[in-house]
Design goal:
By secondary structure, the protein is α+β, with helices and mostly antiparallel strands. The chain contains 17 helices and 19 strands. The strands form six sheets. Strands 7, 8, 9, 10, 11, 12 and 13 form a seven-stranded mixed β-sheet that branches. The chain has a three-stranded antiparallel β-sheet with strand order 4-15-18. A three-stranded mixed β-sheet has the order 5-14-6.
Length: 534
């Protein structure tokens, strides 16, 4: 008799999951990630505490930002990693909707799992989804409004978007105050959308409502000893150069000396070399010198003698933003003063925030430049406030670029779900079943928002669906009263760009995971084999 042993194609350490097992593994991983962040969705969503281990052991973050949670959680499952990457792209692209996009993708896969159990082929499901997403996008675009022609109405739209974005964040108690702060900052950009002109400084102490917007640029540094503390009509030389004792470099050699006097001569030579460097810098006729690296005592003294304000160790993010707002260039060599573009501003002065002294650059050439100073009781509160404000600023900047708005509170999702259901009724074949599943997944977003607030989601969502079928296209969930209300009257507005991105990203990610029928874990290459092959 011949024994039939299974033929092994892959190396010993390599693993392979096939067909149903692979698909189940993908679904379980993706749905688990969706369930992880689902409880943070909506204005009554809960927060997560993230505790670091390893190098940053003991670091604690409190957040309900989907991208931050998923970025901090290490995941092994390949499908889960796809959703984590997708939320990161959503955060980079439009700044908000990171939780919504993850929950929608997970709900799509939950529906797909049920359809596959009914022996519907994945490609049929994908074909139905593609029709559904097209219908949903058209419905969303048809329901969107554009008030950019009327400045007063557009500002109110931006305020409503900021309020809606911040209502699910830590700043929800002060959303009126911070919405105005964010809208003022974004409108200063004059439509450029260049968020790097808005600097955020975090200072512990005080309360959140003591945060403020400063029309200048703030640098968390102090000038050197005995140097001017206030400079008017500042000409700023921005540099990234070593200003420690410049060593006489004799590569590959040892220097032997036979007396202490010779060492003193070497030190004098080093001092002279630094003095030459400072003189080259002074030839630029700048009255302010800002360096990314340290400035040691001797060059600091030389700058003080010349009446120049010298600021050391300006972090690179700060120095790049400073170059942008003052119109200067970052230089590393000083041989050609005529080729260097100096930064300018009307006045540089010291201001106090809490117990800290900062430098304020007033009247910078880039008029839209401003700084938001966030105050708060603890570092965790300030960090979460920073993340919340960043989301609001990103959404507002995206809305200024593409000014369409849609209504929130589950209104847009239900509108799209009803449109998809209507289209499914006119579609023959199994694709109609996939389209209905797509509509159910969309309805899970308002369901989750209601669940997180402790309301009866089945009752509320059925009422919301009925309202939309009756033609009340502005109906959504009022989370304060736990009833269906008019989103237009309540001013619950969201950016069209964010909603569209959520719809498309979630569908693409779910489609990619649904296509998988094999997971192959490649065998690691062994070092001994590599050596043998060389």
């Amino acid at each position: 008799m011949v024994s039939l042993n299974p033929v092994r194609v892959l190396k010993n350490e390599a693993e392979e999951e096939k067909a149903e097992i692979a698909r189940m593994s993908s679904f379980i991983g993706a749905i688990a990630i969706g369930d992880l962040v689902k409880s943070t969705l909506g204005p009554k969503g809960m927060d997560k505490i993230l505790v670091s281990y390893g190098r940053n052991a003991g670091n604690v973050e409190v957040t309900n930002d989907g991208a931050t949670i998923l970025k901090s959680v290490g995941v092994e499952n390949p499908a889960a990693k796809i959703l984590v990457d997708m939320s990161k792209v959503q955060d980079d692209e439009v700044g908000d909707g990171t939780t919504s996009v993850t929950v929608l993708a997970a709900e799509l896969l939950r529906e797909a799992e049920k359809l596959i159990e009914q022996k519907i082929h994945p490609q049929t499901i994908i074909a139905g989804w593609r029709k559904a997403v097209e219908v949903a996008r058209h419905a969303l675009q048809g329901a969107s409004q554009d008030n950019s022609a009327d400045d007063e109405k557009f500002r109110e739209d931006l305020m409503n978007i900021a309020r809606t974005t911040l209502s699910s964040k830590i700043l929800s108690q002060h959303k009126e105050y911070f919405s105005k702060l964010a809208v003022d900052a974004v409108l200063r950009l004059k439509g450029s959308g260049n968020l790097s002109a808005i600097q955020i400084i975090k200072k512990t102490g005080g309360v959140l409502e003591e945060s403020f917007l400063d029309s200048g640029f703030l640098l968390d540094k102090k000038p050197g000893m005995h140097q001017p503390k206030r400079v008017e009509n500042a000409k700023i030389l921005i540099a990234n150069t070593p200003m420690d004792t410049d060593k006489i470099k004799v590569f590959g050699s040892h220097i032997k000396v036979d007396s202490m006097a010779k060492i003193a001569e070497l030190e004098v030579a080093e001092k002279e070399k630094m003095k030459d460097k400072v003189n080259k810098i002074l030839k630029h006729n700048a009255n302010v010198f800002i360096n990314r690296q340290l400035i040691y005592n001797y060059p600091e003294q030389l700058f003080a003698d010349a009446g120049v304000m010298a600021i050391e160790h300006a972090d690179f993010d700060g120095i790049e933003r400073l170059a942008l707002v003052t119109g200067g260039e970052i230089v590393s060599t000083f041989d050609n003063p005529e080729l260097v573009k100096l930064g300018q501003c009307d006045v540089i002065e010291q201001i106090m925030i809490g117990e800290d002294i900062l430098l304020r650059f007033g009247g910078v050439p880039l008029g839209e430049a401003c700084t938001i100073v966030i105050r708060g009781a603890t570092q965790q509160i300030i960090d979460e406030a920073d993340r919340s404000l960043h989301d609001a600023l990103c959404v507002l900047a995206a809305t200024v670029k593409e000014s369409r708005i849609v209504y929130g509170g589950g209104c847009s999702e239900m509108l799209m779900a009803c449109a998809v259901n209507e289209a499914a009724q006119k579609t023959p074949g199994k694709e109609a079943v996939a389209m209905e599943a797509y509509a159910r997944a969309l309805q899970q977003l308002p369901t989750t928002i209601a669940d997180n607030a402790g309301y009866d989601s089945a009752q509320l969502v059925s009422e919301l669906r009925a309202a939309h079928v009756q033609g009340k296209t502005t109906a959504g969930l009022n989370m304060n009263t736990g009833k269906v209300g008019c989103m237009k009257e309540l001013g619950i507005t969201e950016s069209f760009v964010v909603k569209r991105q959520v719809l498309l990203s979630a569908t693409e990610a779910a489609e990619m995971i649904l296509r998988v029928d094999n997971i192959i874990k490649a065998a690691p290459r062994k070092r001994t084999e590599d050596r043998g092959m060389c």
